């Protein structure tokens, strides 16, 4: 007999499932060497979406087609994302029905970073990926002249940047497109 207890159980299960975020099969390819600024962002995102972080050297480009969602993260060096990361991207075979997201840190940070993202985004789209999210924030920078003054963007990414990275990752998890360029 269908009891009151059973119907309550079904209702509770339905509510829990409705609010739940589906964990997708994901991986993050990360290039971060200057102050490991981008690595801090990668760790926050990886924790939320449950993905492994790999360096370009650890990545077999043809294996990326096995993932539903692939994250590409890097610092900006001479107006570009890391060469090693871009090289992996060049070698990825054409994919269908796969999603990607981009994240990075730079001395410039914020909206000034849009142009760094654009070329990577276009490349991903040409490979067949749908780009579902972008995140960028300032990173501590002691390159060139900034070294003399003790560096720019001291302490970045800071606690607030990491909080925003978490929000970004939660959007990815909920399958909600999100673009966050932080000043
Ligand atoms: C060799 C070098 C070149 C850089 N070139 C740029 C640049 O062109 N534009 C910029 O905004 N930041 C530039 N930066 C600053 C880095 O993008 C910034 O510090 C970033 O957070 C480094 O990320 P990472 O610690 O993950 O490697 C450069 C840093 C280095 C070391």
Please characterize this protein's 3D structure.
The structure is a single chain. The protein has 183 residues and is α/β, with parallel strands linked by helices. It has one domain (22-181): Flavodoxin domain (Rossmann fold, 3-Layer(aba) Sandwich). It has helices at residues 4-19, 37-49, 83-91, 114-126, 159-173, and strands at residues 26-31, 52-54, 69-77, 80-81, 98-106, 129-138, 178-181. Strands 1, 2, 3, 4, 5, 6 and 7 form a 7-stranded mixed β-sheet that branches. β1 (26-31), α2 (37-49) and β2 form a beta-alpha-beta unit. The N and C termini lie far apart (61 Å). The model is unreliable at 10-19 (pLDDT under 50). Bound molecules: flavin mononucleotide (FMN).
List its salient traits:
183 residues; alpha/beta; Rossmann fold; 7-stranded mixed β-sheet; 5 helices; globular; binds flavin mononucleotide
